[in-house]
């Protein structure tokens, strides 16, 4: 059954999407997103938000490859095609300025 | 003139190549020394041990696993609790080369296994002889006995039966007062999530939290962060875990309520 709901993004979700779209070539992990968000994202809520974005189909995730010296592989997140489209639509609706202010 | 320049350049290159392995050893040794400097007061014999280490390192300059040797010698030389050393080695590994990081990881795993074995030994002894006075028997140590395949594979019932034969190295007081062996951060969180949620949920949500938690924790340790900073990290990730826990549990509870409702309707 096709998803007939209108796409929605909360401020936090929008910020995460912004960070992931800006670094589209690189997959990022939760802690990295927190560090780059200029204090806008918190460790306490980032994982739930990421999980929600994944449920919406805007993100994909995979386990970090095993590397010497890394005891516990992290989870890396990447934006999907649909996610990028939704993000761009929100950017056109005035999100660009807010995002700039948030990450300034 | 050009030939002379080229020769001198070649010689300089050669010198650099020859000096490289030694420079690496001294660099790593300095890093180890820096990392352990807060403990110098406790371990006044550091210089002596360091000399021993240098002697041990020298024959294995070319060996790939030289960092393992350095770390192992450090562990045995300072008699520090196994896991403390493992965590230190892990943190230290972040500042070392790829070989050093791998070595630190191996050492961490090995020391952790040792710590776990030790804990199991103590638990087993407590279980077999809960409140008895220890019997002294010099003929065989507990470790030797526990190494006996017959005893190792014995069922709990059999273990109680053989209790009169058990010999152990520590008295019950010593066992109780022995330092608790700490597991890597987030182990309890991961274990609880694995018991309750599906594999996918654990991998997608909880493993991500625990992995970032461990990385953050190790980074702070390597930076020389104090107990308060570590506690803050612990609190942040536990909060994150709790929020994720509630969010993941929500649909399960809802399904349970619906199932109970349906069952009650059928029964009524």
The overall pLDDT of chain A, averaged over residues, is: 82
User: Given the C-alpha coordinates, what overall shape of chain B results?
Assistant: elongated
How is the largest sheet of chain A built, in terms of strand order?
Answer: 1-3-2
Distance between the termini of chain B: 107 Å
Biggest interface pair, counts? A-B, 24 and 31 residues
In short:
The complex is a heterodimer of chains A (about 100) and B (about 270). By secondary structure, chain A is mostly helical.
Topology:
The complex is a heterodimer of chains A (104) and B (268).
Chain A: H1 11-22, E1 28-29, H2 30-36, H3 43-56, E2 59-63, E3 75-79, H4 81-103
Antiparallel strand pairs in A: 1-3, 2-3
Helix pairs in contact in A: 1-4, 2-3
Chain B: H1 2-36, H2 46-57, H3 66-78, H4 82-93, H5 98-128, H6 142-147, H7 149-152, H8 156-161, H9 172-177, H10 187-196, H11 199-222, H12 227-267
Written description of the protein model:
The complex is a heterodimer of chains A (104) and B (268). Chain A is 54% helix and 12% strand. Chain A has 104 residues and is mostly helical. In chain A, helix 2 packs across helix 3. The relative contact order of chain A is 0.22. Chain B contains twelve helices and no strands. Chain B is mainly alpha-helical and 268 residues long. About 19% of the residues of chain B have low confidence. Chain B is 75% helix and 0% strand. In chain B, helix 2 packs antiparallel against helix 3. Chains A and B meet through helix 3 of A and helix 5, helix 11 and helix 12 of B.
Task: Quickly list its features.
heterodimer, A: 104 residues, mainly alpha, three-stranded antiparallel sheet, 12% strand, B: 268 residues, 12 helices, 75% helix, elongated
């Amino acid at each position: 059954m096709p998803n007939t709901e209108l796409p929605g993004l909360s401020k936090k979700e929008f910020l995460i999407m912004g960070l992931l779209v800006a670094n589209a070539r690189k997959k990022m992990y939760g802690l990295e997103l927190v560090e780059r968000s200029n204090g806008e994202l918190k460790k306490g809520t980032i994982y739930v938000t990421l999980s929600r974005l994944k449920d919406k189909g805007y993100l994909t995730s995979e386990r970090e490859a095993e590397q010497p010296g890394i005891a516990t592989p992290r989870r890396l997140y990447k934006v999907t095609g649909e996610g990028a489209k939704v993000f761009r639509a929100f950017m056109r609706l005035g999100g660009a300025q807010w995002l700039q202010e948030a990450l300034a | 003139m050009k030939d002379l320049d080229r020769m001198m350049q070649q010689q300089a290159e050669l010198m650099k190549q020859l000096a490289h392995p030694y420079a690496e050893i001294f660099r790593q040794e300095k890093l180890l020394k820096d990392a352990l400097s807060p403990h110098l007061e406790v371990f006044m014999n550091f210089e002596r041990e360091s000399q021993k280490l240098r002697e041990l390192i020298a024959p294995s300059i070319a060996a790939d696993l030289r960092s393992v040797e350095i770390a192992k010698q450090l562990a045995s030389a300072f008699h520090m609790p196994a896991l403390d050393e493992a965590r230190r080695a892990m943190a230290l590994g972040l500042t070392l080369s790829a070989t050093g990081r791998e070595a630190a990881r191996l050492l961490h795993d090995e020391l952790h296994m040792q710590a776990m074995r030790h804990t199991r030994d103590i638990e087993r002894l407590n279980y077999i002889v809960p409140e008895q006075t220890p019997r002294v028997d010099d003929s065989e140590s507990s470790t030797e006995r526990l190494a006996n395949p017959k005893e190792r594979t014995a069922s709990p019932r059999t273990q109680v039966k053989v209790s009169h034969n058990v010999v152990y190295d520590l008295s019950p007081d010593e066992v109780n007062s022995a330092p608790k062996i700490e597991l890597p951060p987030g182990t309890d969180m991961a274990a609880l999530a694995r018991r309750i949620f599906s594999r996918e949920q654990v991998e997608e949500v909880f493993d991500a939290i625990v992995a970032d938690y461990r990385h953050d924790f190790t980074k702070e340790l390597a930076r020389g962060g104090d107990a308060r900073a570590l506690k803050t990290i612990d609190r942040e990730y536990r909060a994150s875990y709790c929020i994720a826990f509630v969010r993941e549990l929500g649909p399960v509870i809802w399904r349970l309520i619906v199932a109970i409702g349906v069952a009650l309707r059928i029964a009524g």
